[in-house]
Design brief:
alpha/beta; five-stranded mixed β-sheet; 12 helices; 14 strands; 41% helix; 19% strand; binds zinc ion
């Protein structure tokens, strides 16, 4: 093909992408709005809209209110034109979620299957995914990919778990999943997946420190609108920050890691009950012992947040399983304890709280393929 031919094709593709991404960002728009904001000719926009509609990527339904003349057609993307599936694997269960192109979770469920490094385990996960897809009668082309969030640090190429002490899954391979599923598969450290979801929800953030308050603690650092990985992929593993050298033994072998004070496991241990039992009783404020357990928890969290705020001068995001339990009063308590006394203050509005609870890593993992798709239409 001539050089000119190639240029025309790529220009067409760029225009199509531009129009699609404009509609995606606008949520609902009109043809004339696209013409005016993208400064493209009316016929170019019309051609691209027809193309996108034929391919099923966008839909035109409804009209904008008009004060006179012809009403403008409302144009939007088809949010479930493609979906992405996220799996969050934990020691005693796994989460399954499906998200649409706006990152909305259209399905979430939990399966009580303990992790084991056996073909039967991987087959069970793959089988659950296949069953989910077939029971919803999704065509294979609709599935962007399957993204797996695992406890444990992954290799830079995301093919292997390089540090998986909690689940004892060091060495776990992406292949165990990808060999069993006819879709693209991706493997990610669950803390990083959670951070990806929080970043997705706060695209305005340049930097942040993410606390993943899950059964085991996790963390991530966001800088320059990206998740910081580090030389060996362990940036942000704030769970192993030592806050008391004489503290309880951590699974990593050290003593007094933040994990031993601020993980859900440690909170349940201190309270002597499950989280689901703990919070309703705590909020009744009848047990001074439970109020103290929660204060201790928040004190340790504030201690870590205060120290990390010196390293990363940015908002703090509370994410994961415990996040939806945080009240406004808790945030005031945290802010007070972070700031008193401190050389630099952290405003209460600088503490953000995630809303997806235990499904945060699975949803964040699924966004990997959504993000990729949106940028390559
Ligand atoms: Zn540790």
């Amino acid at each position: 093909m001539s050089e000119k031919g190639l240029t025309t094709i790529s220009l067409k593709k760029i225009n199509k992408s531009k129009v699609y991404q404009y509609i995606y960002k606008s949520k609902v728009t009109s043809k004339l709005q696209i013409v005016s904001d993208l400064q493209m000719g009316l016929s170019t926009v019309s051609q691209n809209l027809n193309l996108l509609e034929q391919e099923g990527l966008i839909e035109r339904n409804g009209y904008f209110d008009s004060t006179g003349g012809r009403k403008a057609q409302a144009i939007q993307i088809v949010p479930d034109f493609k979906i992405s599936i996220g799996i969050g694997i934990l020691k005693n269960m796994f989460h399954l979620t499906a998200v649409d192109l706006y990152g909305n979770a259209i399905f979430t469920d939990t399966f009580s299957v303990p992790y084991s490094n056996t073909p039967a385990y991987y087959e069970q996960i793959a089988g659950t995914v296949r069953e989910f897809i077939s029971s919803n009668q999704y065509e294979d082309e609709k599935i962007l990919g399957i993204s797996i969030a695992t406890q444990g640090v992954t290799s830079p190429d995301h093919t292997t778990v390089t540090y998986g002490t909690i689940m004892n899954n060091t060495g776990m391979k992406l292949e165990e999943f990808s060999h069993r599923l006819p879709y693209p598969c991706y493997l990610e450290h669950d803390s990083k997946s959670a951070a990806f979801l929080e970043l997705w929800k706060h695209p305005e953030l340049d930097s942040a420190v993410v606390f993943l308050l899950n059964r085991n603690l996790g963390g991530a650092i966001i800088t320059n609108h990206q998740i910081h990985q580090g030389n060996s992929m362990h940036s942000g593993t704030l769970e192993h920050m030592c806050i008391n050298p004489d503290g309880p033994l951590c699974y990593c072998g050290n003593r007094g890691c933040l994990e031993t004070y601020c993980s859900v496991d440690s909170l349940e241990q201190a309270a002597g009950m499950t989280i689901k039992e703990f919070f309703p009783l705590l909020r009744e404020k009848k047990s001074s012992q439970l109020v103290q357990v929660w204060k201790d928890y928040l004190n340790h969290l504030a201690f870590a947040m205060k120290n990390l705020n010196l390293i990363i001068d940015a908002p703090v995001i509370i994410s994961g399983y415990l996040a939806p339990y945080f009240t406004d009063e808790d945030l005031s308590y945290l802010t007070e304890h972070i700031n008193l006394p401190a050389p630099f203050k952290l405003g209460k509005d600088q503490i953000l709280v995630g809303t997806n609870g235990q499904y945060t890593p699975a949803i964040g993992a699924a966004l990997h393929y959504v993000d990729q798709f949106i940028h390559t239409v």
